[in-house]
Design goal:
The complex is a heterodimer of chains A (about 170) and B (about 60). By secondary structure, chain A is α/β, with parallel strands linked by helices. Chain A contains 9 helices and 5 strands. In chain B, about 70% of the residues lie in helices and about 0% in strands. The chains are: A alpha/beta (about 170), B mainly alpha (about 60).
Chain lengths: ~170, ~60
């Protein structure tokens, strides 16, 4: 499936982190980017001025309480919060393909029920692979994550990620 | 080994007790301990880093 055919559903993490980096444009290239109302509220609590309307292919979705409720048991097992649960419920209900999330438990649950999952780091690198940004720009955004965003990464781990990219791409 | 004392909402305690009564755990406390273990395993730094590295591999090998 090519990127342009993928329906992605946003969780708050990548939305907030990409906005912190001034890089919401990296969400471009999906057929649709579905944004559950619960996730938007959560993101606006952290980033009141967030430029959500600038996201290409954005479709706002009202969470369906019965769809959310049907997943309570599984969500409890994975320890999910309201926003993450709403995002996965929207993914199922709207036949989405990919969850965009940085939450480990939400990612684990979405993968367990058969969906693709990408996080902020994956979206930055996707932007480079799609030639939206240069390798240098992608590299700079990754290096800026600990200082300019609230996505917490161990410095040693980030160095490892950058090394992997260099090894593979020279 | 440490002891933690906590107030558990009635509904949650009822669910833990059901698991214990069904024979899955010796007591509601044991069920709560297992729930904490599972929560921690799903919110670990190791899991987060493994997932991010999977994103990196995907981006470098498959994403076009």
């Amino acid at each position: 499936m090519s990127a342009g055919e993928i329906i992605a559903v946003l969780d708050a993490g990548p939305l907030i982190h990409l906005d912190e980096l001034g890089s919401l444009n990296l969400l471009a290239g999906y057929r649709e980017v579905l944004l559950p109302d619960v996730v938007e509220s959560e993101a606006r609590k952290h980033r009141p001025e967030i430029q959500i309307d600038s996201i290409s292919g954005l479709v706002r979705v009202t969470s369906n309480p019965s769809a959310v409720e049907s997943m309570f048991e599984l969500a409890a097992e994975f320890g999910l919060h309201a926003g993450e649960l709403a995002a996965i419920a929207v993914l199922k209900e709207h036949h989405g393909d990919c969850l965009l999330s940085d939450d480990a438990a939400a990612r684990a649950m979405a993968e367990a029920i058969g969906f693709q999952v990408r996080g902020t780091v994956g979206l930055i690198l996707r932007g480079w692979q799609r030639k939206q940004i240069s390798k240098t720009a992608a590299y700079d955004l990754l290096k800026a994550l600990p200082k300019r965003s609230t996505l917490h990464l161990r410095p040693g781990f980030l160095a490892n990620v950058l090394e992997q990219i260099n090894e593979k791409t020279g | 080994m440490k002891t933690i004392t906590l107030e558990c909402p009635d509904r949650l305690h009822e669910q833990l007790s059901k698991l214990a009564a069904a024979g899955w755990f010796k007591s509601p406390e044991d069920a709560a301990l297992e729930a904490v273990r599972r929560y921690l395993s799903l919110h670990s730094v190791e899991l987060q880093e493994k997932q991010i590295m999977a994103d990196v591999q995907w981006a470098l090998n498959e994403c076009r």
